[in-house]
Amino acid sequence: MAHQKYQSCIEACVQCATECERCADACLDEKDVKMMAACIRLDRDCATICRAAAGLMSRGSQFAADLCRLCAEVCEACGAECQKHAAMSHCKRCAEACKRCAEECSKMAGAMA
């Protein structure tokens, strides 16, 4: 059962996707939305790839390791952008979720390769 073997990474991906969606939505409500454009774009990209990585790991796909490597890279970029706006609680939570997910995905990509 592949999903049990990778459960902590799957959970980190699902949590990260959720926080990224919440962050993007909250960014749209900020006074200067244009200033948050990069954050919103990265949030959306990160949420998408995290869900995809969780799905591939859940079914033990042969491509899971490759996608997890890319997922870690996207999470790092998203987390770095959100960290710039850490005064906003939604960005702070997102940055933390991205950091955890990047760590889990990097570990899993190495283990799965």
Question: Can you characterise this structure?
Answer:
The structure is a single chain. The two termini are 17 Å apart. This protein has helices at 2-5, 7-28, 37-58, 64-83, 89-112. By secondary structure, the chain is mostly helical. The radius of gyration is 14 Å and the shape is elongated. The mean pLDDT is 94. The protein has one domain: Substrate Binding Domain Of Dnak, Chain:A, Domain 2 (Up-down Bundle), CATH 1.20.1270.360. Helix 2 (7-28) runs antiparallel to helix 5 (89-112), helix 3 packs antiparallel against helix 4 (64-83) and helix 4 runs antiparallel to helix 5.
SSE order and pairing:
Elements: H1 2-5, H2 7-28, H3 37-58, H4 64-83, H5 89-112
Helix pairs in contact: 2-3, 2-5, 3-4, 4-5
Features:
0% strand; Substrate Binding Domain Of Dnak, Chain:A, Domain 2; mainly alpha; 113 residues
Q: Structural class of the secondary structure composition?
A: mainly alpha
Number of strands: 0
Strand count, sense and barrel status of the largest sheet are: none
Kindly provide the radius of gyration, computed on alpha-carbon positions and rounded to a whole number of angstroms.
14 Å
